[in-house]
Amino acid sequence: MTTTAAHPPAIKLGLRANLAQFSLLVAVNALVGAMIGQERTVLPLLADQVFAIGAFTASLTFIVAFGVTKALTNLAAGTLSDRYGRKPVLVAGWLIGLPVPLLLIWAPSWGWVIAANILLGINQGLTWSTTIVMKIDLVGPARRGLAMGLNEAAGYLALAATALATGWLAAEHGLRPVPFYLGIAFAALGLGLSTVFVRETRGHARHEAANHTPRNTGDHDELTGRQIFTLTSFKEKALSAASQAGLVNNLNDGLAWGLYPILFATSGIGVARIGVLVALYPAVWGLGQTLTGWLSDHWGRKWLIAAGMLLQAAGIAVVAAATGFTPWAVAAVLMGAGTALVYPTLLAVIGDVAHPAWRARAVGVYRLWRDLGYAVGAILAGITADLFGLQPAIWIIAAITAASGLVVAVRMYETHPRGQRMPRPAPVQG
């Protein structure tokens, strides 16, 4: 008699074929995003009003700690998920995230906040990286942009909603502890769903690799970690252009996370309205990705990314040039729209170019560079703000962002199969 154990169900790639698991992973990533959202409005204000940290550079140390830790964890997550499977890495990420809201509630000194953000960086690196890889595993090449759009939309819409909610809770009940009660619930729910209901997807990646048709002789299925790092970071034109754009994108996000709430507060805007401004940027970002990921599957990747970086630069320039709730809200919309064009599309580029056998590690390298942007942005913005003031710091970030868009326009080639014919990748050195 035929049994399920003897004949496991055939693996199928595609969004529709894996809709239940895909939808569950979207929900899990929403909880991952919400873990960051608990900090976005409240933590910069805690630095200023509770811990009385005057220097911008010092107050942004929590973002540096988060960014460096998350970046390094992203790099490890790809290797770990290839070696041990996706699900164990996802569950481990949630276990590490459980203490974060408790540390933020009880923190007697700024050192505790930094420690919490180190744990948060590990949590985000393991969980967000893994949900990305698992969705890429499930959907296959045809709907990769849409899959990344839905993944990132869930994470950043949840981030925005939580930033808005914590701003309101802080206005009503104070900066601590009530706003961080949400984080306790998010971590517990994420751990429960990942442990009980999420299924392993590494078999889907193996299935795709077994049926993978190489684009050219440079499409190798077996590379060392060093070779993958070199290709993704420097040598392969599309991968390296995506890596630098990802770094600059999160450099912007570090600026918005660390300095915007302080800038808004110094203009006399109340905590609840600061929460609205802080939430608006990721809300537009999150909503837009449901469209832009799909568009990149039909129009191609390159020019969406280049346009998105330039649109972000325009939004940052408006923040520097204008004052008041309304122009800053317009700037937040511009930044959110630009980031929506960029964020899922960059991940789709990595999925397009990297071989299925080493794609998880390539995603890890890309996310290493992308999330180092948090640290680079916090340090650059903090030092510049301390030396010259908030507005000059913001203008510098706007210029860097525009330059990144030009790099994409010049260096990146179209990677989507419906787009232009891809050039041959740089040869792999042994």
- What is the N-to-C succession of helices and strands? HHHHHHHHHHHHHHHHHH
CATH class: Mainly Alpha
Q: What general outline do the C-alpha atoms trace?
A: globular
Q: Domain count, please report it.
A: 1
Question: In the CATH scheme, what's the topology name?
Answer: Growth Hormone, Chain: A
Radius of gyration of CA atoms, rounded to a whole number: 21 Å
CATH superfamily: MFS general substrate transporter like domains
Tell me the number of helical segments per DSSP (H or I, 4 or more residues long): 18
- Residue share in helices? over 70%
Strand content: under 5%
Strands, count: 0
Characterize the biggest β-sheet. Answer: none
Supply the CATH architecture: Up-down Bundle
Ends apart, CA distance between termini: 50 Å
Secondary structure category: mainly alpha
Mean pLDDT level = 87
Stretches with pLDDT under 50, minimum 5 residues: 1-6, 420-430
Task: Describe this structure in a few short sentences.
It contains 18 helices and no strands. It has helices at 19-40, 42-49, 56-59, 61-84, 86-97, 100-106, 110-139, 144-173, 181-196, 202-210, 225-235, 237-258, 260-266, 271-299, 302-321, 325-353, 359-388, 390-411. It is globular and about 60 Å long.
